[in-house]
């Protein structure tokens, strides 16, 4: 499985009328904080509140009429669930979404409100195991990251960055299963190989950093981070390969750092991200020594589906 800039360009043409071209803006506050030039890719303003809509639309739009008629099934504890539900509702496709029982209620409610049938399973691993039953019924599995069409959709984020800021020097992007990082890094590196792409995870949702250390995918015993939308039980061989090929490194930050950054972004940029997105600022603070006064650093705020109840409970 591989992706390239041509596949990303095809995805962009396919999904163009269904998704938002999200803004990329320089932040004076973050630039002063990090002593460099910091830009924010506001992907949390995307349809369904996160980048996942790009991959969901690209996958479902690529299906045959017969496949669409049989419906789609997805596994997610967060943004992919809402994206598949939303895309399916727009395209008139039946959707079943399998979610772990510890999924925040706002994610479950939104997925159902978009029209998907939600089934709760004890764990994300159990949800993945249940997929076979629905595939046996003829439904098409829309994988949250291990699919070239899904990754190519996510890669359109990187393509937009390169068009809006051609002289970007660094891009910082979150990693769950690695689909976003794989897609964005491919778009960035194939456009300008000199740009550095940095990955970010949180402690307790660090499947990619463990895989990079081991040299192969490692299955996490449990997802313990509050950044539940980074909670893939393991990365895939394909996303690991892209990380090995394209990323400078993967910085693993604590939940406390992610939440401190979330509060700072909320107070100063006036947007409510989720920990899976705010961790990019936490990583940028750690990586500060790699940036100069002329650097142009992009933080990808990949999603904003974080409830006020959760915000208050973590305060």
Compact overview of the structure:
The chain has 315 residues and is an alpha/beta fold. 48% of the residues lie in helices and 16% in strands. The protein is built from 14 helices and 10 strands.
Entry keywords:
single chain, about 325 residues, alpha/beta, Rossmann fold, 2 domains, 6-stranded mixed sheet, 4-stranded parallel sheet, 14 helices, globular
Q: What portion of residues is helical?
A: 40-55%
Uncertain stretches? none
What composes the largest sheet? Answer: 6 strands, mixed
The first-level CATH class of the largest domain is given as Alpha Beta
Proportion of beta-strand residues: 15-25%
- The tally of structural domains comes to 2
What would the average pLDDT be, to the nearest integer?
A: 95
Distance between the termini: 42 Å
Number of strands: 10
Order of helices and strands: HEHEHHEHEHEHEHEHEHHEHHEH
CATH architecture annotation name of the largest domain: 3-Layer(aba) Sandwich
Radius of gyration: 18 Å
Helix segment tally: 14
At CATH level 3, the topology of the largest domain is: Rossmann fold
**What general form does the structure show?**
globular
Strand arrangement, major sheet: 1-2-10-7-8-9
Structural class: alpha/beta
């Amino acid at each position: 499985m591989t992706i390239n800039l041509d596949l990303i360009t095809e995805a962009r043409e396919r999904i163009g009328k269904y998704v938002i071209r999200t803004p990329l803006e320089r932040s004076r506050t973050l630039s002063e904080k990090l002593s460099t030039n910091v830009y924010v890719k506001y992907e949390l303003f995307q349809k369904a509140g996160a980048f996942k809509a790009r991959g969901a639309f690209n996958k479902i739009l690529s299906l045959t009429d017969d496949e669409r008629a049989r419906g789609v099934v997805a596994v997610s504890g967060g943004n992919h669930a809402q994206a598949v539900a939303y895309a399916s509702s727009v395209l008139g496709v039946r959707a079943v979404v399998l979610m772990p029982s510890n999924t925040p209620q706002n994610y479950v409610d939104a997925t159902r409100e978009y029209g998907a049938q939600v089934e709760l399973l004890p764990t994300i691993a159990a949800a993945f195991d249940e997929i076979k039953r629905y595939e046996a019924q003829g439904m098409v599995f829309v994988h949250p990251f291990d699919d070239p069409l899904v990754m190519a959709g996510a890669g359109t984020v990187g393509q937009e960055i390169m068009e809006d800021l051609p002289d970007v020097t660094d891009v910082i992007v979150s990693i769950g299963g690695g689909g976003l990082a794989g897609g964005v890094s491919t778009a960035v590196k194939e456009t300008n190989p000199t740009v550095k792409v940095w990955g970010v995870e949180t402690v307790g949702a660090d499947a990619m950093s463990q895989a990079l250390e081991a040299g192969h995918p490692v299955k996490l015993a449990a997802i313990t981070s509050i950044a539940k939308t980074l909670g893939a039980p393991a990365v895939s061989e394909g996303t690991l390969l892209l990380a090995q090929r394209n990323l400078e490194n993967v910085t693993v930050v604590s939940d406390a750092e992610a939440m401190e950054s979330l509060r700072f972004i909320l107070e100063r940029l006036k947007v409510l991200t989720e920990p899976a997105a705010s961790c990019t600022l936490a990583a940028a603070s750690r990586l500060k020594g790699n940036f100069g006064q002329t650097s142009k650093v992009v933080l990808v705020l990949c999603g904003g589906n974080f409830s006020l109840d959760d915000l208050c409970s973590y305060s």
